[in-house]
Amino acid sequence: xxxVQTNLDRRSFLKASAMAGGGLMLSFSWMAGCTPAExxxxxxxxxxxxxxxxxxxxxxxxxxxxSSNPEFGSGVKTSMPMILAEELDxxxxxxxxxxxxxxxxxxxxxxxxGSQGIRLAWKPLRKAGATARQMLKEAAAKSWGVxxxxxxxxxxxxIHKGSGKKAxxxxxxxxxxxxxxxxxxxxxxxxxxxxxxxxxxxxxxKKIVTGQPLFGIDYKVEGMLIATVIHPPFGxxxxxxxxxxxxxxxxxxxxxxxKTLESDYERNFFDTNAFNxxxxxxxxSTWEVINAKKALKIEYEIAPEESFxxxxxxxxxxxxxxxxxxxxxxxxxxxxxxxxxxxxxxRRDGDPEGAFKKAVKVLERSYTxxxxxxxxxxxxxxxxHVTADKAELYGPIQAPEFIMRTxxxxxxxPKEKINIRLARMGGGFxxxxxxxxxxxxxxxxxxxxxxxxxxxxxxxxxTNGIYRPTYTATYRAGLDENNxxxxxxxxxxxxxxxxxxxxxxxAGAVDHYLAEGWEINSNISIGAFRxxxxxxxAGAEQSFLDEVAELAGKDPIEFRLELLDRALxxxxxxxxxxxxxxxxxxxxxxxxxxxxxxxxxxxxRGVAAxxxxxxxxxxxxxxxxxxxxxVVDKVIAAVDCGVVIxxxxxxxxxxxxxxxxIGNALFGEMTFVDGVPQKNNFHQYxxxxxxxxxxxxxxxxxxSEEDPTGLGEPLFPPVFAAVANALYSATGRRLxxxxxxxxxxxxxxxx
Amino acid sequence: xxxxxxxxxxKMVSVEVDPNTPVLWVLRDHLNLAGTKYGCGVAQxxxxxxxxxxxxxxxxxxxVSSVGDKKITTIEGLSAQGDHPVQQAWLEHDVxxxxxxxxxxxxxxxxxxxxxxxxxxxxxxxxxxxxxxxCATYMxxxxxxxxxxxxxx
Lengths: 751, 153
What we know:
The structure holds two protein chains of two kinds.
Chain A: E1 2-5, H1 16-19, E2 35-36, E3 48-50, E4 55-58, E5 63-67, H2 76-88, E6 95-99, H3 117-144, E7 151-154, E8 157-160, E9 165-168, H4 169-176, E10 184-187, H5 205-209, E11 225-230, E12 236-242, E13 252-259, E14 277-283, H6 286-295, E15 297-302, E16 306-312, E17 315-321, H7 328-340, E18 344-349, H8 352-358, E19 361-369, E20 381-386, E21 391-395, H9 400-411, E22 418-422, H10 436-448, E23 452-455, H11 458-462, E24 470-479, E25 485-495, E26 512-519, H12 534-552, H13 556-569, H14 580-593, E27 605-612, E28 615-626, E29 629-640, H15 647-666, E30 672-673, E31 676-677, E32 696-701, H16 717-731, H17 740-744
Chain B: E1 2-8, E2 11-17, H1 23-30, E3 49-52, E4 55-58, E5 71-73, H2 85-92, H3 102-115, H4 121-128, H5 138-152
Parallel strand pairs in B: 1-5
Antiparallel strand pairs in B: 1-2, 3-4, 3-5
């Protein structure tokens, strides 16, 4: 048991009385979002007693736990309540899980992204569970006339050993709700966990496999209109709309042009939208508006250069959007030109140029990767009902806090009058952090004075920007006569940003180190994509280190471990952004689990390791070439994310990240000609499918009592390099340019 | 507009729609059966898979006028209690991440297993290749199909 200060004030621990008041936030059914944690049918109690914003208990002992973060498939709707249930000490079978609305007065950081959900919720959720448990103990102590310190709990039962008295939580819930919030509570020892680290099934599993309406796109209300949108190519804007052929089409109500953000609006970090003006077709049904969309005649014209103020992480900045129609060929030549110029120095240790002159061997290699589209399976959509005095929104959103501010400004409503409900998302991967679709739906609803569900077609979704940027990086390494790495240089660039993380490995392990970055502006909008930046630079760096190890005549794992040993025992510089011991730990674990030292396994085998989003990952990929196609037989991963909350779901996340990485390394690519994205649906944009997925994946977690970190992203970036290194081992050919399918000239006909 | 009668999940229903309307949108917009998902609209992703007289069929390109007397089964009608062996296996392997494509995966798998109750690994992969899962739960989909096949034996 560990004592912790609760530091909770009354406001953050609203009581049942305050919560029962109704109002906009609670205007929908209190239990509508509830899902039994197990498949058993629980009896819903007539009255709930709220012990805090996350925990309600019924007189029958049924417990409702609020899941506050948006769910996009990473499993937080199961894993976050598991943390509450553990410290509350209840039977998981008696737990219902409810999806919270966006409600910042009650919940901290309702943001899903950056693999930060579990990491940042770990302490607050444990505390919330432990606090409720302490209140139940104190209620029982009062009722039984014994000291609270003599009361223990066991899976939803309060026990006083001395007197033999016992009571279920339900019996004490009403009294506990009136107990003042304790100032100090004790939390469980990790060794006593019975829910955390014990796999629990997805609380929405049954609803998913029976096709229940869980997603924004499934939402429907009486009198609702359907709207779809049309946007121009990049670098263009709407000149004119001829809707003469459309107005008379069946089911069509309106054709209009909307402006999502006002010109003088000061944007926040997630206010990225590629096209601020859209053509909208609204009508009675999806098919009718999709048909009408095809019959519209829209003329576009070149958009002028534009600039706007945007609040970034480092303060306000003016974003310049250049004019012009961009093409991938142009991007490539511009990047090659920029790569030769001087760039911004991000970090310099020692005397890199002097060391390169002294080096006996120097290796220089350049890597590139294209734009990527997110391609969430659920196309962009949102329901909105905006009236003169309030707005109701329901849709997929990773970052409701940011879009709330935008909605307030755009609709001219105070935040109390705007309700954002968090739909389960059919994928997110960063795309749904940018809530422009919520504003678009709200503006359409406001203009049409009706409830509206806006649905993008797949074609509009795929061509709508917020892409993973296109990147390049050139690496140089210098070895001395003993094959020690004495100099290291990375110079990275991209459109419109580079992916260099200057303080990451191998910074800290090399005496003479230089990191530089450069950027080129563009009117093609970009956004977060599963492990932003890392999803390129990990592949480049870890491919390069593989080649450096070979040049040094060293085993690739041993070579990395030597560097990490240096970083651990005698680090260069102070700001090294990794724990060298934990980094080495995953490499050692993957070496053991893959039976790395067995030379019989070495053909077609590649290794990579990376640390990002607070989690350490090492991977070994085994593949072979079959008719010039890579066939991935096995992937073995070692992961250090501290305590693993829900092990089976964590392994699922790992498997998904690995396959996603293989898919994007081999096939992922968006290209442009004159501002027009060259792929608009899955017949053109190749996604990894069953046939290309590995035969097996083993995800091994380092046994750890460190505070937990996230898993949505960290298994994704290193796969790119593990695949490239394995391909080298299988073919004798190093690959530098993603997608590798282009370099291998593979047949693309297997779709 | 045309009045069209359909047998959906063993119930006769009638809708008044443009006869070219794909079954996907009839189900979602007119019959309140939102389990069948829109993913691409061009029969490339499998999210819209239904059974048409037991055959796995892409409903996003299937005009409602072409259905006739054929029986439509959607994910909502695959089993009365959500306990079809494929659904149970999906739960056992905790397949879903975001869950959006899984109805289509399950419908494809259920029709496949009916025809081929004892499939090889290769046959499973081949049968499921038309269904994209962006979360890439492919490993678990295969394992769940094996479990469902074993349960049926």
